[in-house]
Specification:
Elements (H helix, E strand, L loop, with lengths): L4 E4 L6 E2 L7 H10 L12 H4 L4 H18 L1 E2 L1 H12 L3 E6 L6 H10 L6 E4 L3 H7 L4 E4 L2 H9 L3 E5 L13 E4 L2 H11 L4
Parallel strand pairs: 1-4, 1-6, 4-5, 6-7, 7-8
Antiparallel strand pairs: 2-3
The chain binds magnesium ion.
Amino acid sequence: MKSKILGVDIDGVVTDESEYEKGLWHYHFCQFLGRNVERNENIYNIYEAYDIDNDIINDFLGSIIPDIYHMLEPVKMASKVLDFLYKKGFTIKFITARSEEYKRQTQSWLMENGFPFDKLIHSEEKDIIAKEENVGVFIEDYADNAYKIAENRVEVILLDKKYNRHLEHNDNIYRVKNWDQIKNIILDLYNIT
Ligand SMILES: [Mg+2]
């Protein structure tokens, strides 16, 4: 039987960037540059989404990451759903590709915004971590991660985003629009009424 352990990504999954038409990062990148630039919205990776020198992108990221991690708003429904599942006996492990140097900041943000969790793991190799941590269902928004995690026979709930629509159908991946749907799929998968 599937473990009652949920792997949950942070950025794009429990963070709400919807008030910015093309994303919070894009908004701040334009501010940083002092002009509006084009972003390819179908691409997740910031270095590939712009026709701009990597050095400039690095300068931007270096100057803004802590501020952005601090100012991000949570998806309101996300903490409610996770709290509900936590009380139903699920273990919640946040698994993020954010650099380990932001661990303390990330932890504070999660707590301040009312997210229950048992563990916070920083790693870019989410497929490996999902196996090691015995994750039953993984909630993710990045197509490459979703694909690799599902290849390892871990079920993935994929939050629908422009940048992950190219991902082909996979029996282990459930595409959803919001946290209400996430809740319903998890209740279904675990036969909880
Ligand atoms: Mg993400």
